[in-house]
Write a structure and sequence with these properties.
Blueprint lengths: L13 H4 L1 H13 L1 H22 L4 E15 L5 E20 L3 H67 L5 H36 L20 H14 L5 H21 L6 E14 L4
Helix pairs in contact: 2-3, 2-4, 3-4, 4-5, 4-7
Length: 293
Amino acid sequence: MLSGQTPPLPATLPEDFFPGLRDILHSALQQSPQMISRNLDLAMQEANRYMAASAQWPGISAGTSFGGGQQAVGINAIQRTPAYEAYSYNFTINQALYHWGALQAGTDIAHLQIKISEHQYADAYGQLATTLRAQYLSLVAQKVQLRNAHLSLDQTKASVAVVEERSQNGAVTSDELTSAHLGLDDANLSIDRATDDFAHAKRMFLLTSGLSELNDEAIPDEIPKPIYSADTVEALLKNFESTGLHDTFQAQIYDDQIKESELGYKIAKHRLYPHLDLQMGFGQRSEERRVGK
């Protein structure tokens, strides 16, 4: 568990009623676009840590070269023959000795950036879970509305059939018959709206969670009555008041960003100071000359 991450709440959450939602939350941790982006950010910060630390490690470089020249032979300098051949190689080791703590500050900044990314990752997942819970409950509610719209349509059809039968017997006026047909049209439109709303909500839920599909049968047909405990809410509120905002992810991110800025100032302050490095090298050059006949 990351530092600052709150333990499971002693209260009822939507996934306690809907086991399918719990599985979706676990899979969204790996495949939702938001968490994939945070994973990439974590990997990038880890690579930056290696790059920052490498400035304190010994550096080794080596090189080699080969060349030659030609000389002209004859009155008109048409023919050319090799005049010399040369090659060289070198080997160098560099080690930073004293940079006023700037190199260590760079490494510390890299570690802070990893911590910030970890807190942002945990905070992003918390926000994602909250969004998915709300969207899932909305899906259930809209599925219920769609079911109720179909029931209402069936009732409206039955009422229109009664009105039409009475119209044949002359028991209702033409206005009453027209009003019944308009009510039937409105019921059909309500189903179309409910169907489109349900499809849109489902599409947004899939995009947020990273799922490729979600069968309508997997969405519950009703929302159970939640279990509410006033003592639990009061205990959570007291715990929040005692710990304050410092234990939240965002507060820890701000603290780390302040430390990062202070270390960045230290690096900038000593940028123009003299630095002490150790360098050792070895090289050799060999040249062979040829005299034309």
